[in-house]
Every structure is written in structure tokens, then in C-alpha cells.
Amino acid sequence: MAKKKGAPSFECTECGWQTVKWVGRCPECQAWGTVEEKGQVTARTTAASNLAQPAEAIHDVDSSVASFRATSIGELDRVLGGGLVPGAVILMAGEPGVGKSTLLLQVASSVARAHPEQPVLYLTGEESAAQVKKRAERIGAITDGLYLAAESDLGQALGQVEETGAEAGGPQLTIMDSVQTFSSAAVDGAAGGVTQIREVTASMIEAAKRKNMTTILVGHVTKDGNIAGPRMLEHLVDVVCQFEGDRHSRLRLLRAVKNRYGPTDDVGCFDLNEDGLTSLADPSGLFVSALTDRVPGTCITITLEGRRPLTAEVQALVAESQASQPRRAVSGLDSPRVSMLLAVLQRRARLATLMKSEAYVATVGGVKITEPAADLSIALAVASAALEKPLPNRFVAFGEVGLAGEVRPVPGLQRRLQEAQRLGFTHAIIPRNPDGTDSIPEGMRVKEVGSLPEALNLVLDGGPPKEE
């Protein structure tokens, strides 16, 4: 069906697909709420304008103005690469109630104390200034140089940026909580829509670059865990951070998904308590139980969150079942992967009792483990529970287990062993490395294995029953 000349069309802001009438979901990229009305496309030419500032030779550009400023919050500085960069725009995303506003209020207070020469502006579109102050009193974030403004209009918010600390050149840090609650009268659409989010973000980026002001935008996430709004929002900003955590756990993790000024393979750990968020330089103790006796069904592993090694404990319980389909329950681990490991143990390691037994596998402290390097520790914990044989004291294991029962190498082997030694572990089982294991930490007894049955024979006093 041909479109009439001059008739308005509709276009997807994500992939560019066009149609003559509006639809709620783009059939091309399957995104919801991204199809917007567009006028007839016409060719336009923009004439050159007078330059406000001519281009400079790269040798003459002063890069010191973009140096890091520490926030005094160690875990945040670790993730950002050293601190906040003047003129940078940071997008902080996370689920409701995870602690984004609490963290940023602490950041605002800490920056205001560390750099009193310029104020810090906190713009809230979801709460009143009184509500934000009550939270600040609870977490000890009341300080001079921190200004609050409850606004939801973009024009008013930009006015606050211009007026706050005008004599000092404007605020050094502006926090907008959240970007989905602000709207501009210059464009159509309700707050939180694609057009409004694009306009609010573009305006704040322009103000941040012009005033050399660090800006943090709080973003909501969808049910799938993605940042709400157009995908181009993540391309416009300089840094994208994800704040994660289970509402039933005190642990909170901060990751940098995108960072123009530093690495993206590091993670920050925080402890959420009544006084706010506390940086955890060594969070391993949260994920290991306090049991001192050898108990069947427990195994320690070392996981890598980016470049950071973390100690975690896997616990398993195997019980007889009278049901035709025994129950499997998993917490903190990938359920399909645990089911695969149970099948590998049953078939490759000859643990036939698993076929008619209930299996419960969980992590300690609410930590979530997703990397395949935890496969070996999960399998050893389940086998230990099934055979009622405890694993050795001060013992760790890590390695990926395949469907054929082989144990595959994992990255960061040396870093994991060093972390295990630092925490007092003396025995370890690791995958067999064809190139050899370099510089095993002194004092550690490390055994290399190539298959799961071999690992079970080493640590479970003879391992599973032998095939007749």
C-alpha cells in the first residue's frame, strides 16, 4: 500500500522501521513504545555559523581539567576508575529499592565535604526536599555545600543549575533523580516517554559539558533488567553503571557497563544497613558460613567479578524421596546448569542415588554465582552430600565441568589461588592446564584434574562407587 505524499509516517526510534500508522510494538526489533510519529522527510541544508571557539592543536589542549576527583567512597572510585571526571555524564541504573538514591545522597555529601569550594546540587523529581533531608539525617549526609531542589520541569531544573553557586562557577556535581520523572514543555509527550527522556538527557549533557560539571542521572530499569527509555540514552552518556542486589540480602554490587574514562571489568561491593551503604574492601566473609566442623555438602570456591576475586560457599543437601519426580531446588545459582551437573554426576560419576533423591543447592549470604568456574565446587558439594563424606578442611575448588565429565580450564587461575592463600586455604583442586601451572603460591597444595571422577577420587576418600 503506497503512502500518500505529505502524509505523516511513524518510525521506530530504536531500529528506524517505518509504517503509515501507529503500533505499540515494533515488528522489526520487537521493542515496545518506540514507534513515534514523524513528519514527511525533507532535505535540509545547514549553513555554517560563526565559531564560538576555534579548534585547538591537540598539544595545546589542557587535559588536567578532565582529571579524576576522588569521592572518598572507595568502591565507587574503584568502579569509575579513580573518581568523578568534571564534565562527565554518568547514568546510574538499578531496580526500585536497591539503594540508588541512598548511594548518590552519600556521594553528594562526600563530594561536598571533600571539595567545599563548589556546591553540590541534588535534583529530586520523585520525592520532596523534606523527604530527602530525612534520609540524609538517617545516613549522616547533612553537610554544608549540599543543595536540594524538588523539581520535575526541565526548565526549572536547568534554572537551578544556573543559579546554584553562580559565584563559584556553578555546581561541581549535579544529581538528577530520576531522569524519567523530568519533562520539558518544549516537546510533546508525558514524562518518561522516549521523546521526553531524549530531550532531558540532551539538555543535561549540554549543560554538563558547557559548565564542566559532573552530572549523574538516575535511570529506572524494565522487568528484563534493561535501562528504561531509548537505547541511544546509553550511547549519549559517558559512563553507564548498574547497581544490583537482592532485596533480601545486604550485599550490593556496582558495575560499570560502559566507561569512557576507565575500565569496565571491575566491581564495587557495598553493605546496605540502617546507616546507609558501607564500602566493602574485603566482602568474602559475607559469603562463607561460620561452621568450623567438617560437614558433608559444603564446598568453597573463588569466583571472579570482573578482575576481583570473591570467595563463595556452595551448600548442597541430598535426601531420599518417595515421589516419582524428586524435587530440585536452587538458590543463588543457575538452575539449568545445576540440573546439568546433577545429570553429569549421575551418568559420568556413577552417582545413581541422585536419580531417586531430592537435591537442594544454594549459596551462602545471598550471593549469585553465574560463571562456569563454579561448576566443580557445585559438583563436589552435591557428591559430598550424596555420599555423606565431608570435603577436607581449608579446601577450595574451581573449574568448568563439561557434559563428558571433563574439567576445563578457567580464566584468572593465578588470581584465584592467591586469594585462596590470602584467606588461609591450603588445599585446592584446579583444572589441568596443558601449558602447566605457573608460580603456585607457596604453602598451597594444588592438585590438577582432568575429569570429574578424578576430582571425586582425590577428595572423597575413594570417591563414588566404581563401575563393575
Automatic annotation (TrEMBL):
Entry annotated with the keyword DNA-binding: yes
Positions that bind ATP: 94-101
Motif RadA KNRFG motif, residue numbers: 258-262
InterPro entries (UniProt xref): AAA+_ATPase, DNA_repair_RadA, P-loop_NTPase, RecA_ATP-bd, Ribosomal_Su5_D2-typ_SF, Ribsml_uS5_D2-typ_fold_subgr, Rubredoxin_2
Pfam family, any one: AAA_25
Annotated region described as Lon-protease-like, given as residue ranges: 358-468
Alphabetical UniProt keywords: ATP-binding, DNA damage, DNA repair, DNA-binding, Hydrolase, Metal-binding, Nucleotide-binding, Stress response, Zinc, Zinc-finger
Domain annotation RecA family profile: ranges: 65-221
Family of this protein: Belongs to the RecA family. RadA subfamily.
Domain notes: The middle region has homology to RecA with ATPase motifs including the RadA KNRFG motif, while the C-terminus is homologous to Lon protease.
Function in brief: DNA-dependent ATPase involved in processing of recombination intermediates, plays a role in repairing DNA breaks. Stimulates the branch migration of RecA-mediated strand transfer reactions, allowing the 3' invading strand to extend heteroduplex DNA faster. Binds ssDNA in the presence of ADP but not other nucleotides, has ATPase activity that is stimulated by ssDNA and various branched DNA structures, but inhibited by SSB. Does not have RecA's homology-searching function.
Protein name as it appears in the record: DNA repair protein RadA
Gene source species: Nesterenkonia lacusekhoensis
Gene name tied to this protein: radA
